[in-house]
Amino acid sequence: MRGPTKKGARRTGWILVLLVSILCAAPANAHAAGYRYWSFWYHQDGAWQYATQGPSSAKPADGDVEGFRFSVSADSKDAAKPRGATEFGRICADTPAKDGAKRVALVLDFGTAKDAPKGETPPKPRTACAQIPEDGTSAEALADVAEPLRYGSDALLCAIAGYPASGCGEQVAEGGADGGEREAAPLGSKDEGPSVGVVAGVAAALALGGAALWQARRRRG
C-alpha cells in the first residue's frame, strides 16, 4: 500500500482550514453591532459623564446641565456624547430663577442621519432650560421642555419631542443588503444563530472534506 500524494494532502488541509474558518465566522455574523436608543448624560468637571441611573430617578440640582443623545451603540463605552453648548449660564440666560423651583439646562441631540431609523430625519440638536419643583426629576425636566415623550413598557425612554416616531431600543446588526447596517431585533431578543448562507457553506465544506478523505483512503488501498 502507499500513502496519499502530497497534492491530495495539501488539498485536504486547505479544505479543513476553510471549514474551520466558516465555523469560526458563524457566531461573529450573529453578533449585534449595538442598539438604537436615547442615552442619558450629565455634565460635570467640563466633560460629559454617562448617567448610571435613569431620568425618572435622577434628581438634578439647580444649575445642573444634563444631556440626551440618540445614537447606535453597544454600551456606555462607545456611546456618542451630546453635541452643543454646555454652559448653564448661556442655556438658561432667559429663564429667571424662581422661589420653590430649580433650573436645569438640557442638551438634546437627536443624532445623525446614519443612526436614524429608516425613513426618518433627525431634528437639529438644541438646548433648553427646564424649570421644575425643587424635588423634581430629570424626567420632569425633560417633560417640561421636550414633549411629547414616549416610553416603553419597561420604562425605557423611546422618544423625545416625538423623535423617533416609532421603535424603542432596536438591535442593529452589521451586514445589511446595502453594505451598511440593518435592523435585527428588539432590545432583549435572542440571537437567531448563523444565516442560511453560513449553514450552506458549512455543509458544502463538509461534503468536500469527506470526498477528499475518501479519495485519500482509496489511494492507500
Fold blueprint:
Elements: H1 6-30, E1 34-44, E2 47-50, E3 65-73, H2 88-91, E4 101-109, E5 126-133, H3 138-145, E6 150-151, E7 157-159, E8 170-174, E9 181-183, H4 196-220
Parallel strand pairs: 3-4
Antiparallel strand pairs: 1-2, 1-3, 1-8, 4-5, 6-7, 8-9
Word description of this protein:
This protein is α+β, with helices and mostly antiparallel strands and 221 residues long. It has helices at 6-30, 88-91, 138-145, 196-220; strands at residues 34-44, 47-50, 65-73, 101-109, 126-133, 150-151, 157-159, 170-174, 181-183. The strands form two sheets. Strands 1, 2, 3, 4, 5, 8 and 9 form a seven-stranded mixed beta sheet that branches. A two-stranded antiparallel sheet has the order 6-7.
Summarize the helix and strand pattern as letters.
HEEEHEEHEEEEH
Number of strands: 9
Strand content: 15-25%
* Alpha carbon gyration radius: 27 Å
Biggest sheet character: 7 strands, mixed
Q: How many DSSP H or I helices?
A: 4
End-to-end distance, in Å?
A: 6 Å
- Indicate the overall shape: globular
Overall pLDDT score: 77
Bin the helical content.
Answer: 25-40%
What class would the helix/strand composition place it in?
Answer: alpha+beta
Indicate the low-confidence ranges by residue numbers. 12-32, 175-214, 216-220
